Known about the structure:
Elements: E1 4-8, H1 11-22, E2 30-35, H2 41-51, E3 66-69, E4 76-80, H3 88-91, E5 102-106, E6 119-128, E7 131-139, H4 141-150
Parallel strand pairs: 2-5, 2-6, 4-5
Antiparallel strand pairs: 1-7, 3-4, 6-7
Helix pairs in contact: 1-2
Bound molecules: adenosine-5'-triphosphate (ATP) and magnesium ion.
Adenosine-5'-triphosphate (ATP) is lined by residues 8, 10-11, 13-14, 35, 37-43, 60, 106, 130, 132.
Amino acid sequence: MDEYKVTSKCEEDTISIAENFEAEKFPGMVICLNGELGSGKTIFTKGFAAACGIEETITSPTFNIIKEYLDGEMPLYHMDVYRLEDTPESTGLLDYFDKDGVVIIEWANMIEDYLPEERLDVFFKVVEEDKRVIKFVPHGEKYEELCEDAL
Ligand SMILES: Nc1ncnc2c1ncn2[C@@H]1O[C@H](COP(=O)(O)OP(=O)(O)OP(=O)(O)O)[C@@H](O)[C@H]1O
Ligand SMILES: [Mg+2]
């Protein structure tokens, strides 16, 4: 399986890496972000959202699990399942995979069994204070193309 590793030296780097994916977005796209606290998952989402034309400020949806941003070129559904206590079915989170927008999930590994097979997995690793290694693992042809074009 192909995987792509990119080094980010600062917050702005992570934002520009995320911006590269914007041009390739498609309805139903699922991006799964994994990595320890403070590794850059929300910063990545901010970059992605800004490039999608979303003007609203992206804030971490930790306590409400999901936030919808509908003022961009395509709906963006931003989830953070770190504090999810119920099953994803009972909270209706899974319905978002069938909508015509982009779903981006922080701590996606916590709902691994419920994720669609075709998706983009992203792993953030803190290397030094401001340095992160970001690994992209595409699942499915569409996501492989996405990585080839965006990275
Ligand atoms: N290269 C980098 N890329 C992204 N963020 C960085 C980088 N270097 C330093 N930072 C800092 O690390 C922090 C990343 O915070 P962020 O909220 O994105 O983490 P997170 O992975 O979403 O954490 P959480 O699991 O708590 O939601 C920010 O304070 C940011 O300024
Ligand atoms: Mg976060």
